[in-house]
Amino acid sequence: MKIVIARFVSVFFFALCCTTAWLPASACSKVTPAPAAPYPLPAVTGTVTDDSGAIVPGAQVNLLAADGSIAATALADATGMFRLEPPHPGQYVVSAGLSGFKTVTEVVHAGATVAPPITMVLGVAMSVQQVTVTAGSSVDLTSSDTNGDTAVMTSDDLKDLPVFDNDYVTAMGAFLDSGDTATAGSGLMVDGVEANRAMVSPSAVQQVQINQDPYSARYYRPGRGQIEIITRQAEQEYHGQFNFLFRDSALNAQQDFSPSQPFEQRRIYEGNVTGPVRFIPKSAFLFSFDREEEDLDAVVNATVPPTTDNPDGIDNVNVPAPTRDTEFSLRVGHQFSDTNNAYVMYAFQDSTNTNEGVGNQTLPEAGYDAQYREDDLTFHDDDVLSASSLSQASLVFERTNNPITDVQEGPKVVVNGDYTGGSAQDDQDSSEYNLRANEMITWTHGKNLLKYGINLPHFSRRVFDDHTDEDGTYSYSPSYAPDGTETVTAIQAEQAADPSGYTIKQGQTRFVYHQQEVGAFVQDQVKILPRFSITPGLRYDWQNFLPGDVKNFSPRFSFAVVLDPKHEVVLRGGGGIYFDRIGGSPLLDIARYQEAKLRLLQISANQQPLCYPISDCVDVDALPPSIVERAPGLRTPYQIQDGILIERKIGEKGNISIGGRMNRGVDVFRSVDLNAPLGPLYSTRPNPNFSQMRQMQSAGTQKGSALDINYRGRFNKRFTGFAWYSWSHYGNNTSGIWWYPENQQDPNADWGPADWDQRQHFGIYATLNPQHLLNLGVGVFANSGKPWTVLTGTDAYGDNLFNARPAGVPRNSEIGPDYTDLDLRWGYDFKLHPKQMDRSPTLGLSVASFDALNHPNGSYVDNTEGSPDFAQVISADPPRRTQLGMRFNF
Description:
Layout: H1 2-22, H2 25-28, E1 44-50, E2 60-64, E3 70-75, E4 81-84, E5 90-97, E6 104-110, E7 118-122, E8 151-154, H3 155-160, H4 168-173, E9 187-190, E10 193-194, E11 205-210, E12 226-231, E13 239-248, E14 264-276, E15 283-303, E16 314-320, E17 323-337, E18 340-356, E19 368-386, E20 389-406, E21 412-415, E22 419-421, E23 428-445, E24 448-466, E25 473-476, E26 479-480, E27 486-488, H5 490-495, E28 501-507, E29 510-529, E30 532-543, E31 553-564, E32 569-579, H6 585-593, E33 598-604, E34 625-630, E35 638-650, E36 653-673, E37 693-716, E38 719-732, E39 752-753, E40 760-768, E41 776-783, E42 787-788, E43 814-815, E44 819-831, E45 842-850, E46 858-861, E47 873-876, E48 881-889
């Protein structure tokens, strides 16, 4: 323990010294205090933005006293920031307005305690606008983007909540709904544009949110299927923040299934600096950086062939798997006029992972080393075109490179249910050159707030060098008697050199292909009555994976009715169609295998006896190749979603909502082997010229429903946070475009719970007694288990897929372990010059505990019948871990 504290303290003071040495002299020098006021009150600060999160410079901001007189006034600078000095303690109203925008107000309290910065969101002005507001609120309750079912994490939350490794994207991912994601995965929007990552460090993030406007035509994914990030804007005064986080295995609890305490040490150096660009008037910059270093061990827990040194055949070892990640970005913004501002930003990332993939039943020899580099150049422009219209445009140039190298070369060995060894057989190098573009116009006329635009999420050229499986993969399975009794274990089959399947790749290795996606939308929010508005919209999407599928129009609609303005009771509902987004991997499969340019050779022991090495019994070069094709009439899958909820104000600034939603997936993707051997022997493929003939089909079905209870906001001065409870059930007969049914002749027979189906899902992030020395950040997560499928580990159908189940056992019939996690954090910022109030630099210290109760959370169940560990949890999530932190603000 002393050694750990010594490590932390030494690195802490080293980081602090480097930081203070690196700061400009003006930032480190003593700040001249403002002239004394009757009361030394903290200033009221904040940012003026529009409803998309873009800054609004030049806005007039007034601090109004109780009698309506102006107590202080300011103009929002080029970064949208403002600062107001209250003359006396008490309650004030902050008013912000600008020609072309609606004037908004916010109630604040000036006192001895520093109030957090506020965000004044200006909507584009309507010539005739009737807004239902309540005392102390400037929010239009009927607006589609004020949905009470939203999960929001602000920049202040990021400072006060127990966010593991500052990874707020993963933290907020707990509030996503897997049923709402696409083939390409969940979405990430950064400042209104799709992205691979945030491109700024965590301290430069202003807000993270999920499901703000669930039925918006602006996005192709449903609200719970994507994370939206709004980044901080550059400021006209020098400010900065430096964070240092530290973890060490000496502070961790014992890892389950590990022979000894695995080593781990994590060091994160992260921060940002912003200020004016002195040689360019009306310009400001924001520089952010993030360096993460982690030395840790992966835990292997596998069953291997017995030896003299290991007669039990238990391979339980810790394997070093260090990671490194370096990121930085530089944004320079310029205010060209009172109605136009723009910025340019360059962002960089470089990361390395050693012994990736090792752990659980994967041996060290089957690991791989991965690298990733990404460069992004962004141009963004905001232009108030007139008193009723606003233009927002972004252009992003992106380059990525991701080489992967095997730790050890040689054939890969998969002993089903016991271990994977030999080699990863995953050598590859992928690169992408991509252009993203986005343009949105906001226009008002009468009672209409119209938004329309076009976005280009992918216009990319991809290059893939494929050296995977060049040395081949051997699969071994158990054997069973007719009565179901296991006669030969998978390990015994491996010892006897009797594989049940073999694959290898030959031929062309370099592939160039393109990914192109285009979307457009129009949406109108119509104020029918002061308490009632509707938001119809229409979206169109096209992608080159299915170039002939051009009818992908998806209507969207939502409404909001204020039932009780005093208590802010609102009834909301809506629905829409959401088309799937394919991503790049299916395009790569078509490029490689549609014409067998890359020869994927597969053979099952059902076709002929196999051996090790394969060359002793099979002429590999004479094997027929596998191919991939799109089914005739293949179309883009889509979801039909609808829901209704009611929300109500609770506490000071809190909101609680209860609602239900339905989800139906139509024409869902799956894959079927059209050349699978026929029963009852499953020994001969119908077309001898090919091995597997994979056909991508859009013939699956999905159904789901959910009941949600959501809370967010400030209940009182001692509690603020957001929480989400959901009861849901999803069923389908496919797990996606790479999924094969058990029996290729009967693909619809695999109906069962979806892979992500979790009946109970609960999460909460909250701060207790914020801004007090005795504060506490809390995160609680409790989920029921996900389903898993019992497998025999055999190739019963001779298709080399090894996904056969015992007779009469349906897909996803078993439920895995539950998940429970309690995270806690204490932290406090000490003012280095207390008399300067909010102008003072601060030094913050924190300690956080993740899985504070050390609850065992199993992560993997051995699902292969006949395995020594069948139906047992053989891997677990990390145990309780302690994280120390330091923060310096100036």
